[in-house]
Design brief:
The structure is a homotetramer of 289-residue chains. By secondary structure, chain A is an alpha/beta fold. Chain A has two domains: 3-164, 3-Layer(aba) Sandwich (Rossmann fold), CATH 3.40.50.720; 170-285, N-(1-d-carboxylethyl)-l-norvaline Dehydrogenase, domain 2 (Orthogonal Bundle). Chain A has twelve helices and nine strands. Chain A has helices at 13-22, 34-44, 52-56, 69-76, 100-112, 125-131, 142-152, 167-195, 200-207, 215-225, 235-252, 257-271; strands at residues 3-7, 26-30, 47-48, 61-64, 91-94, 116-119, 122-123, 134-139, 156-163. In chain A, the strands form two sheets. Chain A has a six-stranded parallel beta sheet, with helices on both faces. In chain A, strands 7-8-9 form a three-stranded mixed beta sheet. In chain A, strand 4, helix 4 and strand 5 form a beta-alpha-beta unit. In chain A, helix 8 (167-195) crosses helix 10 and helix 8 crosses helix 11 (235-252). The N and C termini of chain A lie far apart (60 Å). At the A-B interface, strand 8, strand 9, helix 8, helix 9 and helix 10 of A face strand 8, strand 9, helix 8, helix 9 and helix 10 of B. The structure holds NADPH dihydro-nicotinamide-adenine-dinucleotide phosphate (3 copies). Residues 8-13, 31-33, 36, 65-67, 71, 74-75, 96-97, 122-123, 125-126, 233, 237 of chain C line the site of one NADPH dihydro-nicotinamide-adenine-dinucleotide phosphate.
């Protein structure tokens, strides 16, 4: 069994790290807010370390799942970050949803230090993390993937090696772009049906089996109709993710009219106090008569 | 077996009528362009009539599947339309995607004449019509539904009685509103992935199983990547349908920002010559680098 | 002096008719709600008639300014409409903002009856009507324009003959399309400035003289900043006008993404109770922090 | 007369620096591409220096007008940047359109070094710079403004002190947000008019005097109608500016649906090869029938 380090025990990181411990690995954790690390060690064993660097010493592999680019930089490249402390030949796997730019930068910095680096954003949400059924979209060398895959199998049902460094993050952007329109249109459709006084269950029965179907339609129609939003994937995260995708599109020449507009509508949802609610709360900005 | 009439032997009407004949009913057909009616009778038997009125005389039930509101009015209420010729107690089922307003008007006119009327737009496309697996969303009285259901079972896998007159059409609008964003976002996502030089098959493998999934993503990702659009649901029809939905929203107070914007983008697709191509051809207006 | 008829004494029609009376013409008025016609006659003289037809008998010219297509049809072509009653060679001038289609239809029907017809939508608002400084964009024959121009000079500062029947209405659509984006962007800019805690007067001073300037920015910045909306051009009218333009674009092949989106945002404004307020009230749907 | 330094002799910087020299000041210039600096000195006198630091030594005031945030950082804070070389009490005025964040950062860094700092983005374009009639929107302390104002008067017709550090840049964002919708709607309106076969000059005559008027409508209607775009304010710059504004809105809580959508449409214009053309070239993406 391997000696592993996990940085960032948030909603996603904590259950992922648990699956790694459950698979028999020796796991050292670090979390900025120490109490979370203590609670995790109490529940799942292993050790905690006071800094990413301390946590990473001697590890075979270091995993991270923090917030955004700046946070990822903080736990890797800045003072007390893990990169300087990692041993040659060790593996670094990042599950944060971040930019392709930082993924590529970490790959370069890692190469200089003899590290194997994989950018590995996930989809499946907190429930997928808890159940160990995440989809992981990966960027990195074949060698890095060969090292990472057996470890990631502890918590995923699908691992796809897309391409070189950054390809995992770019694929996650594709994922979020798809969501933007499907979610908004499901919201528009639901409100339209409500305003038309249709029986929402019957409408769902009639339209959910065909071309109108989307994950968001199938999984959020009922909850939207009940004004229930306190779960799922947060608007704040979605704005971060769309901002990353829109920024990337500036350099690859793609146009994203719906994603850009959805991003603004999520901004309106934030203003309505929905920042930490599921993105289906964007329905709240649509008039109900 | 019943004595049935079918008005409008287009891409949808012809196979639906065939399933009715195949179920053993005695079918009289009418088509504006007579040659199509002749070809249909040659292939499937039955009789043809020169006008909707002539076709409807003595029928137990009359079905229609024509283009839009004006066409529906032409085959029902105007000179030589079927309504004046139908016998008391007969059933009228309309499969056209039209406005809820005309559906309600036909219900009222039908009531005056002692007819049972169902607005019954379908989803499933031409392939669903051929296979006899359409989803039908219905508006009308219980009595009308009781008469229509056994007949419609010949070509559908799902029949949902949503509510009173117009409820079928309104539900079809919900369906098209859902499609608007899912389709556009799948197109944006595909172009973004192309511009980012990602392996499209691998991206599909990574994102198609989760929250990014939609019918359009699952069924059009590959065809869009092959620039193949000569099949499916035509842009011209989609514009008609979105125009109906946007118009309805004016009266029920719903806001449809994505549907309205999608409608304009389909207009841009029409200008690129995609009017009769599948709506996934909207991807053509997105820059490819 | 001429014998004139005016149909529709609303916010626009009443002052226009007053200018015609003030120019010395003999004016007979009709208004659906009789009380308004009585009040007008009390104030400005002339006669009132119980129907458009009765009002139009023997008139040299008939003017109308009603709501939308259906209303225009009601006062012209339907039972008791003016067309049947007008004498040969008489002039019909319509100031309603309506579709180009009905304008062309009236031109055709008018021709059959030997009437001269001008579609003549206006801009300048109620204040322009009161002041007699409207801009009039006209469609019709040269002969019809020659007859209409001297009469319209009583209440306009600019009269432009754009082209044949319908060209006036189509030009009014151009006008409303321009407004759509300028208004929304002025609203976005104002809210952005408020949220950034900038001194709004100084911002106005800095940006109003250059490329950011628009009529809406110049005339609504201050009122928006004071949450004052009870004046000006109503959201309900704007939705009607945008709907006409979007419909027209379906047939002339233009794409109107901003106008279509603005139309939906005005729908959201209506849901906030702004239907009868100035269109700058669309700022209300933008978050203020 | 003062000893001045000018960093960045581009389309805007060169004429601004010329006005300063013309006002009798002793001007030292720096330009990354040395040839431009040589040409400027040949034409207008003064001296050139090989680095921003060298250029700034002993100057009473340093002006800059470079590309974007990163460029501004390069000429100020990085190695050979001017900040380290400037004498205590000297003034720094930046005319770059950049983020409010870097403006505030320069103000803080400047304060530490005893410098007076003004963020002073301009509007008026290259022609305004040539003519010396720029509008300048300023952020900084009263003391810094007192020092900057007499110098800036050499090339501006309007100088507004909006507020503290960053307020100039934030006001420039307000300016660009206003432009986004006015420009796009003028483009939609023009194409609509073309597709409707209207006489464009007459339409302009009819609509340009009222509520449809905007700077872009007044100044770009004719050029768009002639497909002339090789002048004015470049699409590439506009994308940078909108990106800054959209980013700022993320933190101040404003929603910018039109600006965000316009940004994407400018991206489509870039893909059509319009990056260096005037932003009115966005009309090219609209179908012409
Ligand atoms: N939630 C979801 O459904 C999904 C989330 N993701 C992505 O996964 C990532 C994590 O999300 P989630 O777990 O929900 O987020 P949480 O907010 O629950 O957790 C974030 C974790 O990152 C740590 N962290 C953040 N910033 C820093 C920093 N500067 N230095 C050190 N540690 C830091 C936090 O530490 P502390 O405890 O001290 O705050 C915490 O452990 C994000 O990129 C998100 O977009 C991807 C798919 C789904
Ligand atoms: N195609 C699809 O995938 C789907 C289509 N629909 C809807 O089904 C309806 C029919 O579509 P589809 O079959 O594809 O269309 P087609 O164009 O293939 O057929 C239209 C039929 O209507 C007839 N028709 C049209 N106008 C008139 C009129 N004024 N008077 C008499 N007959 C008329 C046509 O006659 P003629 O032969 O003389 O032209 C033809 O038989 C539409 O409302 C469409 O939106 C719904 C779901 C999916
Ligand atoms: N208000 C403005 O700033 C501008 C308005 N316009 C356009 O001018 C037109 C009139 O606007 P405005 O005067 O403000 O509207 P108002 O609502 O004030 O007046 C409408 C007038 O039309 C009459 N009317 C409406 N429907 C019918 C009908 N079916 N039969 C008979 N009479 C009818 C009304 O009669 P009753 O009194 O019985 O209701 C009333 O006299 C509209 O098309 C509008 O878009 C154009 C530019 C500016």
């Amino acid at each position: 069994m391997a000696k592993l380090t996990f940085l960032g025990l948030g909603a996603m990181g904590a259950p992922i790290a648990r699956h790694l411990a459950g698979a028999g690995h020796d796991v050292t954790v670090y979390n900025r807010t120490r109490a979370k690390a203590e609670a995790w060690v109490d529940a799942h064993g292993g050790r905690l370390a006071p800094t990413p660097a301390a946590a990473a010493e001697d590890a075979d592999a270091v995993f991270s799942c923090v917030g955004a680019d700046g946070d990822l930089e903080a736990v890797t490249l800045r003072k007390d970050g893990c990169f300087a402390a990692m041993k040659k030949g060790a593996l670094f796997v990042d599950h944060t949803t971040a930019s392709a730019k930082i993924a590529r930068q970490l790959a370069v910095e890692g190469k200089d230090r003899g590290l194997l680096v994989v950018d590995a954003p996930v989809s499946g949400g907190q429930s997928g993390a808890e159940a160990g059924t995440l989809s992981i979209m990966c960027g990195g060398s074949d060698k890095a993937m060969a090292a990472a895959t057996p470890l990631m199998q502890a918590y995923s049902s699908r691992i796809v090696h897309i391409g070189g460094p950054g390809a995992g993050q770019t694929t996650k952007m594709v994922n979020q772009i798809c969501i933007a329109g499907a979610m908004q249109s499901a919201a528009e459709a639901l409100r339209f049906a409500q305003n038309a006084d249709l029986d929402l269950d019957k409408v769902f029965e009639a339209v959910s089996g065909g071309a109108a179907a989307s994950w968001y339609m199938l999984n959020r129609w009922k909850t939207m109709s009940e004004d229930s939003f306190d779960f799922g994937f947060a608007v704040d995260w979605m704005r971060k993710d769309l901002s990353i995708a829109i920024e990337e599109a500036r350099s690859n020449g793609a146009a994203l009219p719906f994603a850009a507009l959805a991003d603004q509508f999520y901004g309106e949802a934030q203003a309505l106090g929905c920042g930490r609610l599921d993105i289906s709360s964007v329905v709240k900005r649509l008039p109900k008569t």
